[in-house]
Design goal:
With about 70 residues, this protein is mostly helical. The protein contains 3 helices and no strands. α1 runs antiparallel to α2.
């Protein structure tokens, strides 16, 4: 089950990353999927992966916040 969850989370990351140029909602969804991948990393015992995904998630959330501010 854990492997299936990890595969799904990483697949969502790739999917939403590819769609980011289409709108800020995809940046937000990419950030959420990064956090889901981070959770997988910690559950699987690969904490360096979990930390890296948290960093990517924070970067994506900041990018999303900035894009929302620019739209308003």
């Amino acid at each position: 089950m854990l492997t299936a969850y990890g595969t799904f989370a990483v697949a969502l990351m790739v999917f939403f990353y590819a769609l980011e140029p289409r709108g800020s909602i995809y940046t937000f969804l990419f950030a959420l999927s990064c956090m889901a991948s981070a959770l997988y990393g910690f559950l699987a015992g690969t904490w360096p992966f979990g930390i890296a995904e948290i960093i990517w998630g924070i970067i994506a959330f900041r990018k999303w916040i900035n894009s929302v501010k620019e739209q308003n």
